[in-house]
Amino acid sequence: EIQRRKAEFETVGMEAVKSGKVAAVLLAGGMGTRLGVDGPKGAYDIGLTKPLYIFEQQMKNLLEVVKECGVIVPLYIMTSDKNHEQTTSFWKEHDYFGYPETEVKFFKQDMAPAVDYNGKIYLERKDTPALSPNGNGGWFASLKRAGLCEDLKEKGVEWLNIYAVDNVLQRIADPVFVGATIASGVNCGAKVITKNNPYEKVGVLCLDGEQPDIIEYYELTDEMANEKDADGNLAYGFGAIMNYLFRLSKLEEIVDKRIPVHIVEKKIECVGEDGVARKPEKENGKKFETLAVDLIKPMGSVLPFEVVREKEFAPIKNKTGVDSVESARELLKQNGVQL
Ligand code: UTP
Fold first, then answer.
1. What is the pLDDT of residues 171-203, one digit of tens each?
2. Which of 137, 145, 173, 268 is deepest in the core (most CB within 10 A)?
3. Using CA atoms, how far apart are residues 250 and 300, in angstroms rounded to an integer?
């Protein structure tokens, strides 16, 4: 269907981007504990012969659309208390990667405490809980609280394209995706790929009764992961790649709705009872996170939009192995990016 109606979708999407109806929102408040670098993940240099920062590569992708459509797509970047200063100064230092400074706005997400396996709250100092970013689910509420909704409306924005910092092949404000979502009359679109194995670490798109929903990989049971549909394909075979298009008016309607809090095992920096700071080597407790994927259900309708994984999905979660700096470099090379 996407192939068949590509030209039509592209025309609709280009028109929306050209008339300023689409803004981009980069979710970059995470700590990137698996990659294990200090500072913002987007500031990580994946270059080999010259520096190439994750932020930079993503901006190159966005600038292609900007060039094609002849308009700047306003960009909003979510940070957290843990990386805000570093992120904003990094962007300034690099001249906003070719973007006008006025079109890049930063806002901070909320933080939450974390606990050890006995439920005891980790401390940052002897009398202060260790706070971590509370997941990416509160991105719209935080954007609104920062007063940026007025900004969006003044600009005439109607659609927000949110995306994760860790995919260096991320297509942002992709006209075909934008057009397909608008033409389908739904409240949101989600880019998906066919999973390469039942346990691939991506959230899967499915239906909960009539309602669209996404189940995170760590909450998928063995049975569900391996379940087959009538055609012998994985029943939960479509993974979301954290690239969504949301209708702004619907987001405003649902902003106060409660979304679930997920419990995730992570490495949590803290002070021990001896008052000495600890940087754990492996998971040592649980964090509480809300997830952007949980907005899909309250949005009420979603268009799953399948993309070619080799062209659009190069996640960097780890240093080596699966979904790593190494695998992402390979994929970038395949797509003609010079490292
Ligand atoms: P992940 O959960 O994969 O990344 O977030 P993380 O938390 O940075 O990394 P690990 O799990 O500790 O290794 C996916 C996307 O959501 C953003 C991240 O920055 C990334 O773009 N995110 C995550 C936030 O913006 N805020 C959060 O609290 C968590």
1. 999 999 999 999 999 999 999 998 888 888 888
2. 173
3. 9
Residue 169 Cα, ligand 1 centroid: separation in angstroms?
Answer: 17
pLDDT digits (tens, 9 = 90+) for 268-319: 999 888 888 888 889 999 999 999 989 999 999 999 999 999 999 999 999 8
Segment 127-160, tens digit of pLDDT: 899 999 999 999 999 999 999 999 999 999 999 9
CA 106 to centroid of ligand 1, rounded, Å: 16
pTM: 0.94
Distance (Å) from CA 135 to ligand 1 centroid = 7
Ligand 1 centroid to Cα of residue 289, in Å, is 10
The beta-carbon contacts of 150-156 under 8 Å, at least 24 apart in sequence, are 151/74, 151/105, 152/23, 152/74, 152/248, 153/248, 155/20, 155/23, 155/74, 156/19, 156/20, 156/21
Q: Which of 25, 26, 31 to mutate to test the pocket of ligand 1 (most atoms within 8 A of CB)?
A: 31
Question: Would the pLDDT of 208 be above 80?
Answer: no
Beta-strand ranges (E) seen in 75-202 are: 75-79, 104-108, 111-115, 123-125, 128-129, 131-133, 159-164, 188-194
Pocket of ligand 1 (CB under 6 A): 27-34, 41, 78, 109, 133-136, 164-166, 266, 317
